Amino acid sequence: MSLLDRHRAVMPGWMPVYYGDDALEIVSGSGRRVTDAGGRTYLDFFGGVLTTMIGYDVAEISDAVRAQIGTGVAHTSTLYLIRQQVELAEKIARLSGIPDARVFFTNSGTEANESALLMATNVRRSNQILAIKNSYHGRTFATMAVTGHRSWSSSSLSPLSVNWLASADRLRGRMAGLNDADLLDAAVDDLREVLATVTAGDVAALIAEPVQGVGGFVHGPDGLLGAYRKVLAEHGILLIADEVQTGWGRTGDHFWGYQAHGVTPDLITFAKGIGNGFALGGVVGRAEVMNAVPAVSFSTFGGNPVSAAAGNAVLDYVLDHDLQGNARRVGGILLGGLRALSYGILAEVRGRGLMIGLEFVRPGTTEPDPAVTLRVFDLCREGGLLVGKGGLYGNVLRIGPPLTLTEDEAREGLAILSGAIATADAES
Ligand code: PLP
Q1: Structural domains in the chain plus CATH codes
Q2: Residue 414: count of CB within 10 angstroms of its CB
Q3: What's the CA-to-centroid distance between 270 and ligand 1, angstroms?
Q4: Whose CA is nearest to atom 10 of ligand 1?
Q5: What residues contact residue 81 under an 8 Å CB cut-off, 6+ apart?
Q6: Which of 40, 80, 352, 413 is a plausible cystine mate for 251, CB 3.0–4.6 Å?
Q7: pTM of the model
Q8: Cα 193 to middle of ligand 1, angstroms
Q9: Which residues contact 417 (CB under 8 A, 6 or more apart)?
Q10: Would the ipTM clear 0.95, i.e. be above it?
């Protein structure tokens, strides 16, 4: 029996999501490349959904983790002082841009967001949260409620959804001649309209991804969160930035995604890349909010010594090697190469640093085309390149390689991607 058959016999039916009948078993990795059980090596432009931020088997990270395991100490984080954890918290607090910042750790992005929502709702004594349409914040009760989809709202939270003209909506807006300033005004008007439907003081927080990840690497117009903030401040509403995909320099021009918006959030959540594959997430936020709800901010394994050791090594690597600068430079090569392509199926190339989205449509229309997107995705894999797919309509390819991607690797991947798009376009 194949591993896929064994998987299907024992795990939920929809898994594994990505390659269906062609599911890959990755058995090893090195740098920006992974090798499957059949011995084929791929260039990885998705980094395990942006988790392998430094790359595979990078000595500095692997050695730090091995050293921690070598001490024999891998225990709960609630019992003792953990030096690795305190050191990591100090670094993140300093980098957060939040004065008087406090940090605590979780095992995942979902837990980080769940905790931030719990803190905000407790501090503001309200269960109302503003969610951006087409967001993704995790798979727990509260985090699934704040996706901006009514269908998910069957939880204890009652989210209000705000439309920042994401994805295909935004594309339609652009094609109808709306520029970023128009889009920003429309989004702020929408927020005001939503707030007009609730009693003042009833809303605890707005949660937003500075660049939507699962939604298809969509960034709202620059300054949008800052413009929101002015409205939120009138109502005493907290701002939570979900930096699970955008943090640590991925977007190139900034260390955090929120910095493109001229605003400092009250709470920032993080995960994914900071562990480079080890389970690590957390929240950094204003002391006033973070200190208010003690019960929320600890868990058995959040920030355990092994994950915290990985986190320290990752963050040191990011800073010592200026990976933000690399994301800007190498991301610029990719963006430039992709924007130079001209094919009917490719409606938009958007992105920041090493977080790039390609939106595919039926030529000459704004109709999302998930089938052609899948074809490009499959052709990339056949060519030896792993990319991500997603977007609300399944018509976005997502490119989020490790931040250590070299210029040569960028050009190699670009060639495979361009060839795949050309083939799919010719076939359509
Ligand atoms: N927030 C964002 C923006 C994400 O992209 C994700 C995961 O994809 C999450 C939260 C959930 O993180 P995790 O899967 O680590 O729980």
Answers
A1: 3-58+322-427 (3.90.1150.10), 64-320 (3.40.640.10)
A2: 20
A3: 9
A4: 137
A5: none
A6: 352
A7: 0.95
A8: 29
A9: 45, 338, 376, 380, 385, 387, 399
A10: yes
The set of protein residues with a Cβ atom below 6 angstroms from ligand 1 is 49, 108-110, 113, 136-138, 209, 213-214, 242, 244-245, 271, 281
pLDDT tens for each residue of the chain, 428 residues long: 999 989 989 988 777 767 888 899 999 999 999 999 999 999 999 999 999 999 999 999 999 999 999 998 888 877 889 999 999 999 999 999 999 999 999 999 999 999 999 999 999 998 888 888 888 999 888 888 888 765 544 444 555 666 554 444 555 555 456 677 877 888 888 888 888 888 878 899 999 999 999 989 988 788 889 999 999 999 999 999 999 999 999 999 999 999 999 999 999 999 999 999 999 999 999 999 999 887 777 788 999 999 999 999 999 999 999 999 999 999 999 999 999 999 999 999 999 999 999 999 999 888 889 999 999 999 999 999 999 998 878 999 999 999 999 999 999 999 999 999 999 999 99
**Helices (H), ranges, 207-357:** 224-234, 287-290, 305-320, 323-339
365 Cα–ligand 1 center, Å: 32
Contact by Cβ (8 Å): 359, 338: no
Which of 244, 246, 396, 398 most suits a substitution to test ligand 1, by most atoms within 8 Å of the C-beta?
A: 244
